[in-house]
Design goal:
The protein is α+β, with helices and mostly antiparallel strands. It has one domain: Cytidine Deaminase, domain 2 (3-Layer(aba) Sandwich). It contains 4 helices and 10 strands. The strands form 2 sheets. The chain has an 8-stranded mixed sheet with strand order 2-10-9-8-7-6-3-4, sandwiched between helices. It has a two-stranded antiparallel sheet with strand order 1-5. Strand 9 and strand 10 form a beta hairpin.
Length: about 220
């Protein structure tokens, strides 16, 4: 099993959340990290089988009306086929631990998890990477994908990204930034996207936002 991902962004306690080479123009799903943010493709097109798995895992993220993160491990086999495996063990309301035990002919090219918020948590969608997510991406040198509602996000470390970071500090710094943004009137989802973009730029990562399997690079 891998490190625990997510610690999905949480509204501050006093938040009144409602209860209800040169950059390539287009690419499929990258199978390795880019050298620099500029080298990363401008557009990622997620293969249909992966996108369908993401959509299904999102639908599965509200058992009994309660949020539960779901996810899996994205692999490429020795024939070049890309698939998502190890999807049968969900996480809890705020975390998901990717199972990185894959077949000998498979290479891990990323992980995926959902960011669900049930009605009691405000019902947010469009919530991007948490600080914990980003810290893990850096320390594991591994791409990641997130889905929240119909919005999808991707994040890639680059050769310019630090080799390691203090997990707890990065997570706290980003949570503090989200809280700061929400005090200015931003919703949790807006604040999470702004904070994720800022953190991606700070650590020279390629960060993407999109939907329906088409994601655009926004960090450089």
């Amino acid at each position: 099993m891998g490190l625990c991902d997510s610690d999905k962004p949480t509204p501050p306690a006093n938040n009144s959340a409602p209860t209800n080479a040169a950059s390539t123009s287009c690419s499929g799903m990258p199978t390795s990290n880019p050298k620099t943010c500029a080298d990363a493709p401008k557009t990622i097109t997620i293969p249909k089988n992966i996108n369908d798995s993401m959509a299904q895992l999102w639908k599965d993220s509200f058992p009994g009306g309660k949020s539960q993160e779901h996810g899996g491990t994205i692999v490429q086999d020795d024939k070049g086929n890309v698939s998502m495996v190890n999807t049968s063990n969900p996480g809890d309301t705020g975390s998901f631990s990717a199972n990185r035990n894959v077949a000998s002919n498979q290479k891990i090219i990323g992980t995926f998890h959902t960011h669900p918020y049930d009605e009691s948590e405000g019902g947010y969608t469009g919530v991007s990477f948490s600080g914990a997510d980003i810290a893990n991406r850096i320390n594991l040198r591994e791409p990641s994908y997130v889905q929240s509602g119909d919005k999808q996000f991707a994040l890639f470390p680059t050769d310019d990204t630090p080799k390691s970071v203090d997990y707890n500090k990065l997570n706290k710094d980003q949570n503090d930034r989200i809280a700061e943004l929400m005090k200015t009137g931003k919703s949790l989802d807006e604040a999470s996207r702004i904070a994720a973009l800022e953190t991606a730029k700070k650590y020279k990562m390629a960060y993407y936002e999109g939907s329906n399997g088409t994601l655009q690079k926004v960090s450089c």
